[in-house]
Amino acid sequence: MDFGPLHGAAIERCYTLSVMKSRSHRMRKSIWATLICAHVTVLCLGFSTAQAQAPISIATVIKESAAYQLRIVTLRGSITDLEALPPYMTRRGPVVGACLFTLKDGTGSIEVEVDRDCAESVDRTWRQNYIVRGILQMQGSKIFLLATEVRRGDE
User: Fold this and answer.
1) Please, are residues 39 and 62 in contact by the beta-carbon 8 Å criterion?
2) Distance in angstroms between the alpha carbons of the first and the last residue of the chain
3) Is the dihedral of CA 53, 49, 62, 135 positive or negative?
């Protein structure tokens, strides 16, 4: 059966509307996801700064890791096993200058990830007495700190 050119135009219009609706739905989902991520970031960064100001021991952080999960903590210690990472790509764009290191304070050690400006933050010859501030994260049994600030403790 041939319904003529109007039938074809109607089908094409329905298809166009469904694609537009699908795009609109995805856009709304994307906007909500962005808003939720922004809200979580604000919550993570908005935790008590009094707790984050004074350095705490690594042993305390490891022992009470569930209480510190996704909270900003400040640690003091010596840097060992410094490893510069090659540039890599994330959803937010390229990451250049990232590194990994272990921070030790005499009570324990923790892996630290720095996602930018590591060469500027860590003096390659001076490895003792660093203040590292960041968000404590847990992935299974692995506990690490995503650093937001790395500086020498004598500054």
Assistant:
1) no
2) 84
3) negative
147 has a pLDDT exceeding 90: yes
The CA-CA-CA angle for residues 93, 43, 122, to 5°, reads: 50
State how far the Cα of 127 lies from the Cα of 80, in Å rounded to an integer.
7
Residues facing 99 on adjacent strands: 84, 114
Q: How far apart are CA 73 and CA 103, in angstroms?
A: 13
87 in the Ramachandran plot: left (φ > 0), alpha (ψ -120 to 50) or beta? beta
Residues 74/125, Cβ–Cβ less than 8 Å: no
Sign of CA dihedral 29, 30, 31, 34: positive
> Does residue 25 carry a pLDDT above 60?
no
CA angle, 120 then 135 then 66, to 5°? 150
pLDDT-above-90 percentage for the chain: 40
CB 150 within 8 A of CB 100: no
At residue 98, what is the residue type?
A
pLDDT in tens, 71-113: 999 999 999 998 988 988 889 899 888 999 999 999 999 999 9
Give the pairing type, strands 142-152 and 130-139: antiparallel
